[in-house]
Amino acid sequence: MKEMFGTPMKRGIAIAALALCGTAGLVAAPGVQAQGRGRPTPPPGPARAATTDIRVLKVRPNVYMLSGAGGNITVLTFPEGVLLVDTGSAQMADKVLDTVKQLSEKPIAHIINTSASADHVGGNEKLAASGRRIPLEVIAGEGPMVVAHENVLTRMSAPTGKQAAAPERAWPNETYHLDSMKLSTHFHGGEAIQLLHEPAAHSDGDSLVWFRHADVITTGDIFMTTTYPIIDVANGGTINGVIDGLNAILEIAFPDFRSEGGTMIIPGHGRLSDMADVGYYRDMVTIIRGRVQDLVKKGQTLEQVKAAKPTRDYDGRFGATSGSWTTDMFVEAVYKTLSAKKK
Asked: All domains of the chain, ordered by start, with CATH?
């Protein structure tokens, strides 16, 4: 562990940059802005300003990462069609569709949702309406298969609090309820795809999506490079579940050398990453959990915990004082899930 994660931060960032440059290539479709080599990605995270540009990063020969549409989107192209992991926000759906068409002339055949968050499922309705299921000769006229954990369907189909139900065309039409789900390689150009449910992480419906042949993992909001974890307490999210999810990513990822390179990891928000990035993020979240847990055991109130600034070492990298997810909101979510009484 000391060899993997004990190096100074600046040295680790430099090594990671070299590894990623040698592993993933940049590609820009006509009219689409490419992410510049060496230029930091404008973070599309919920606490940052929105952008109107879709940026395309070629991760593997037939796997792309789209950023700038809300949550990051993974695109898998194969001879019969296109598979998407997440669809971004509703406002960016048209631009996402245009970008996907520039990457492949084939229809959108499958959509996978990593959670029910609006910036990950907002484009479902429009993108599903534009696609068609395969094989065409068997299921003519049907839209794409939209896959997610069953809790995602529950959240999207039933209004809760101030959040209205999503349009029915946006709902998942294929759900799973076990620990994982495997999709047939027959309809994805031979790519083996496995969904892994991570309960009570960002929410209660999170899925990791593992492209086993391409060696790519899409994490949804369990892992991000732009902010502290977004813990949706109202929808079953917990700090312990987030850490379990991060450990699950590290369990199935492989490094090329000293935890750098190897498996490419597409976060819910932010830049393309590898095992070293997830390891650093996991360690950071675990340290903060330990600090808050210690204060909870001492009987500290929420305000006292906030005043103790348990995130102070990391605020310059992940903190925010404004926007939809601030440092105080993160600390409050951690406090609530650690101090909640077990039933």
From this structure: 2-289 (3.60.15.10)
